[in-house]
Amino acid sequence: MEEEIILLDYWASMYGMRTRIALEEKKVKYEYREEDLSNKSPLLLQMNPIHKKIPVLIHKGKPICESIIQVQYIDELWPDTNPILPSDPYQRAQARFWADYIDKKTYVPCKALWSESGEKQEAAKIEFIEVLKTLDSELGDKYYFGGNEFGLVDIAFIGFYSWFRTYEEVANLSIVLEFPKLMAWAQRCLKRESVAKALPDSDKVLKSVSDHRKIILGID
């Protein structure tokens, strides 16, 4: 009998993309439920009463919140198919460090890139470029962040790629030209079926953000 797994998510969330990729990597069947973030479902509010945010993974009626925690939970639950975390304790610790770095350093500037203008947006650009430089240096000449194997850090960051065009258009950033190694890494990741299925079209993200800026913020 198959286990009941439900994912409460939003199509453009780079955080939810992580969980979708992990589930696909493990070949786990699940029910996807799209959330309206302006009118959150009673189930979402019930399952994540603290933060009231997506994504929420529901397994056997029990919620697991926060995307990186979800990815690790999925890896522990189905360890034999496409391991996400390395078996070596030091390498595993390093992977967790960089996943945590991505979470702590990207949320604020990335949101400001598309939701703000003027000085706040300019400050966010500087901050995000520094993050990209750090990750570019960490990637170096490796195939994936962890070496030859697709893993936690790749899953933690690849969802942002679908937003790069939006950041370039609305914040006048130059990511594709300035970070060719990261771009090549993203293309390698996209060759994986799990990633290709999880990441939305960049044009769709850009249109959604542009519409939001015009309607809510009055910004072109």
Any overview of this molecule?
This is glutathione transferase. It catalyses: RX + glutathione = an S-substituted glutathione + a halide anion + H(+). A 4-stranded mixed β-sheet has the order 2-1-3-4. It contains 10 helices and 4 strands; from the N terminus they run βαβαββαααααααα. The radius of gyration is 17 Å and the shape is globular. The chain is an alpha+beta fold and 220 residues long. Helix content is 57%, strand content 8%. It has helices at residues 14-25, 42-47, 67-77, 89-115, 118-139, 152-158, 164-171, 180-190, 193-198, 202-217; strands at 5-9, 31-34, 56-59, 62-65. The longest helix has 27 residues, at 89-115. Helix 1 (14-25) packs across helix 6, helix 4 runs antiparallel to helix 5 and helix 4 runs parallel beside helix 6 (152-158).
Low-confidence stretches: none
| Beta-strand content estimate | 5-15%
Largest sheet: 4 strands, mixed
Structural class: alpha+beta
Encode the helix/strand succession as letters: EHEHEEHHHHHHHH
Mean pLDDT: 95
Provide the helix percentage: 55-70%
> Which strand order do you get reading across the main beta sheet?
2-1-3-4
Q: How many whole angstroms does the radius of gyration measure?
A: 17 Å
Principal-axes geometry comes out as globular
Q: How far is the N terminus from the C terminus?
A: 51 Å
Number of strands: 4
Number of separate helices = 10
